[in-house]
TrEMBL record:
<keyword id="KW-0808">Transferase</keyword>
<comment type="similarity">
    <text>Belongs to the methyltransferase superfamily. HEN1 family.</text>
</comment>
<keyword id="KW-0460">Magnesium</keyword>
<keyword id="KW-0694">RNA-binding</keyword>
<dbReference type="InterPro" id="IPR038546">
    <property type="entry name" value="Hen1_N_sf"/>
</dbReference>
<dbReference type="InterPro" id="IPR024026">
    <property type="entry name" value="3'-RNA_MeTfrase_Hen1_bac"/>
</dbReference>
<protein>
    <recommendedName>
        <fullName>Small RNA 2'-O-methyltransferase</fullName>
        <ecNumber>2.1.1.386</ecNumber>
    </recommendedName>
</protein>
<keyword id="KW-0949">S-adenosyl-L-methionine</keyword>
<dbReference type="Pfam" id="PF08242">
    <property type="entry name" value="Methyltransf_12"/>
</dbReference>
<dbReference type="InterPro" id="IPR024740">
    <property type="entry name" value="Hen1_N"/>
</dbReference>
<dbReference type="Pfam" id="PF12623">
    <property type="entry name" value="Hen1_L"/>
</dbReference>
<feature type="domain" description="Hen1 N-terminal">
    <location>
        <begin position="13"/>
        <end position="254"/>
    </location>
</feature>
<keyword id="KW-0479">Metal-binding</keyword>
<keyword id="KW-0489">Methyltransferase</keyword>
<dbReference type="InterPro" id="IPR013217">
    <property type="entry name" value="Methyltransf_12"/>
</dbReference>
<dbReference type="InterPro" id="IPR026610">
    <property type="entry name" value="Hen1"/>
</dbReference>
<keyword id="KW-0943">RNA-mediated gene silencing</keyword>
Amino acid sequence: MVRLPALGQTDRVLLTVTTTHRPATDLGFLLHKHPDRVQEFQQSFGTVTVFYPEATEERCTVALLLDVDPVRLARSRARNAPDFSLAQYVNDRSYAASSLLGVAMADVFSTARSGRCNSRQELADTAIPLEIVLPVLPCRGGPDVAHRIFTPLGWSVEAEPIPLDPAFADWGDSRYVRLRLSGVLRLADALNQLHVLLPVLDESKHYWQGPDEVDKLLRSGEGWLASHPEADLITRRYLGRRGSLTRVGLARLAELSDDVTESIAPADDEEVQQPAERRVPLNTQRHDAVHQVLLDLGARSVIDLGCGPGQFVERLVQTASFTRVAGSDVSTRSLQQAARRLRLDRMTERQAERVELFQGALTYEDDRYAGFDAAVLMEVIEHVDPQRLDAVERVVFGVARPRAVIVTTPNREYNVLYEHLIGMRHPDHRFEWSRDEFATWSERVAATHGYTVERRGIGELHTTHGTPTQMAIFTRTEANDE
């Protein structure tokens, strides 16, 4: 066996996999990498070295060492990839597990990930004791997120936070953890899980993501992702929180398992950058707030404009006092998801008469928008190009003219409280308003179209920055009632 430095003597060993299955050296057959050899593999961003620090019948460990070349990484960046300027050259990629490691591992261990092993196929199909160690792993959300993601997969998880500087305890912990996983799994399953979950924990991919990313996710997640309790979180993070990809990914997962039906809820893209402990409560608070306003207004007919896959429409349908409910969206895929969520094909004829879903663009007049007591635009206007916002105002307030309009949108001032957030809360947002900007817009719209307006906050109130979501309740004045 080749003698190499002990694991603790190099900062660049990013991944080790150990088994105590006997004979343990069969790990070499499963990985298609002989324990007596050191092998190097060239990647567009650096060099991968695979070697075995220990290889006996009782215990065998394979180490994957990734040496990142920042210049090669920068040169390999696709033309349409985001430009992070100096961050292309000054980063933690050479020393921490990341999407780079996930890509390298997927390539080097591609046959093992497929579960094929001609000489030991029965072993490849068998769950064996495994221990995986990642000495330095970026983990947004800390050890708790690592436990939430790996424990449901059958792993025993040890996630030890790494201090910013051991010499200065008051500085606290860094965003890195030392992760140790132990469990009894098929090696192919373990490697595929790592391929997906390394960039999920890091929440930063080094390459541009195209439409094929959804296919990659579903292939690597086959057999475990659809039933994972954190499937929504994993999908959003793996797909870089890109709204279009995420919606497709969640929809396709929903088709695989009824367990993730809730995951095809509206993307809530503007809030996914929040800490996990705040993410769901804010979504719930927003739906609760709008629902309560509709009840207080005494509305009987409601249309959700930009309804997405229909989470809020479903809540409206479940409320008996709303005798007519409609949802409209520009995306036919979202409307198909909404129809599945509402189980329209299983409704009685009488129930179906109460509900309507249709495709429409808010920048164009549509008779179907008219005749409702209330209209809801929940986290919609920030996705409209500013130069087209006047058209939306005219269609909703000037032509459709419901008795009430409820609008919610992110509060830009609150963004400073979101760790690691740079720019707007979601790449599809065309703008985000401060409270003063929202007030100016809502007052102008109300005065122009004959409405009064009341503004409220939704979510946790910060004394300086306000609430994460701001809401405007427009009510048509009596003089303008038809």
